[in-house]
Amino acid sequence: MTKQTPEERRERNRLRSERWRRAHGIMPRKPAERPWLAEGISRSTYYRRKAKALQEAARSAESVRRLTLLSRAEAFTRQLQLDLAEAARCQAIAAAVIGELAVLS
């Protein structure tokens, strides 16, 4: 047997190790996703931009929530005003009826 070079030995050991892992049901890992490389920016810039985008989305969602809450409050106020107007009308009718009863007595 001839003496193997370090590269050949390393490759033989890598293949043996891989055969052992497959025999024991260990599947290879998926390569890590690195979206910052696709965008051509550094990792820290990618995460900094991502955090900023998340903050802006949260701020936008908060403003939508506030507008929805405000519109609900306005609708509630309009309904209260209508109910108060109806109550005032009913009070006027009741006062007129009481006035008529007072005249009749």
Overview of the molecule:
The chain has 105 residues and is an all-alpha fold. The chain has a domain of 71 residues. The protein has three helices and no strands. The chain is rod-shaped, with a radius of gyration of 39 Å.
Structure in a nutshell:
This protein is mainly alpha-helical and 105 residues long. It has 3 helices and no strands. The chain starts with 5 loop residues before the first helix and ends with a helix.
List the helices and strands and how they pair.
Blueprint: H1 6-23, H2 35-39, H3 43-104
Primary descriptors:
mainly alpha; 105 residues; rod-shaped
Cα end-to-end separation:
132 Å
Average of the residue pLDDT scores: 93
Low-confidence stretches: none
Compute the CA-based radius of gyration. Answer: 39 Å
Structural class by sheet pairing and helices:
mainly alpha
DSSP helical segment count: 3
Strand content: under 5%
Q: In which range does the helix fraction lie?
A: over 70%
Largest sheet: none
Helix and strand run = HHH
The rough form would be described as rod-shaped
**Strand tally, please?**
0
